[in-house]
Amino acid sequence: VTTLVNTSNKGPSTKKKGRSKKAHVLAVSVEQATQNFLEKGEQIAKDSQDLKEELIAAVEDVRKQGETMRMASSDFADDPCSSVKRGTMVRAARALLSAVTRLLILADMADVTRLLSHLKIVEEALEGVKNAINEQDLANRFKEFGKEMVKLNYVAARRQQELKDPQCRDEMAAARGALKKNATMLYTASQAFLRHPDVAATRANRDYVFKQVQEAIGGISSAAQASSPTDEKHGHAGIGELAAALNEFDVSHFFHFNSSIVNMTFSPSFNS
């Protein structure tokens, strides 16, 4: 967008004045694309327990900027040779892109916050298992731990699908695998310790398994919060493509760029 703003002032056009059928089609497309995006954003804001007010505000900003873009693109379509109307559309596109990006970032932050909340609950349940005083107490606490583990695995699996950096995905997958493996051994190791608390080997074995579970939880947390250099690189490339597309009077690339992000963020895999 910055590149476009800096290179868009080319003075009045010498082309024949008239209406652009293609521009009108694109104006309708942007209106529909924005509406689809808003519907997804509203649903996420409604369902989110974290950053709800911020998400709602971001959705409303997208709605506002989308309406501005709709009017600007319609005016431009009526007079595609007008440098003034073209400039107005470019500014509207820039504002809409900024609003969309902010909503996507907030939605991602809310998702990470939710995962971290689940991790904290699992850590507390894990500590409860460690503090069990007898086998019946262990069974009850481990049952609760297992329930929280199922919830965590669901959220972590979803986050793993969203990660763009292959290294982060691999780290998340490895941490989830280690958590599942060691959580399975946790009950047996804890039970053996409660039966033979005076045997040093049973205590050492239980403590080792607990440490492995804790490290796996930490691995999930680290992978979930990691920022990918790959994402940043692709992000700058996308903005460059947007500038080039608008500079050619073809905003279809702008919507393709945004719809690609929306599909990545709000696709079925996002909620699976």
From TrEMBL:
UniProt xrefs under SUPFAM superfamilies: alpha-catenin/vinculin-like (SSF47220)
Membrane topology label: Peripheral membrane protein
Gene3D superfamilies per the UniProt record, alphabetical: Alpha-catenin/vinculin-like
Pfam families: Vinculin
Cellular component GO terms, alphabetical: actin cytoskeleton; adherens junction; axon; catenin complex; nucleus
Bias-annotated ranges (Basic residues): 13-23
Top-rank taxon, per record: Eukaryota
Biased composition regions of type Polar residues, renumbered to the chain: 1-12
Record domain SEA: where: 251-272
The UniProt record lists the keyword Membrane: yes
Key words of the record: Cell adhesion, Cell junction, Cell membrane, Cell projection, Cytoplasm, Cytoskeleton, Developmental protein, Differentiation, Membrane, Nucleus
GO biological process: cell differentiation; cell migration; cell-cell adhesion
Localization annotation: Cell junction, Adherens junction; Cell membrane; Cell projection, Axon; Cytoplasm, Cytoskeleton
Protein's UniProt keywords contain Nucleus: yes
Major localization listed first in the record, in broad terms: other
One GO MF term attached to the UniProt entry: cadherin binding
Residue ranges of the region described as Disordered: 1-23
Protein family membership: Belongs to the vinculin/alpha-catenin family.
Record-given protein name: Catenin alpha-2
Species this chain originates from: Takifugu flavidus (sansaifugu)
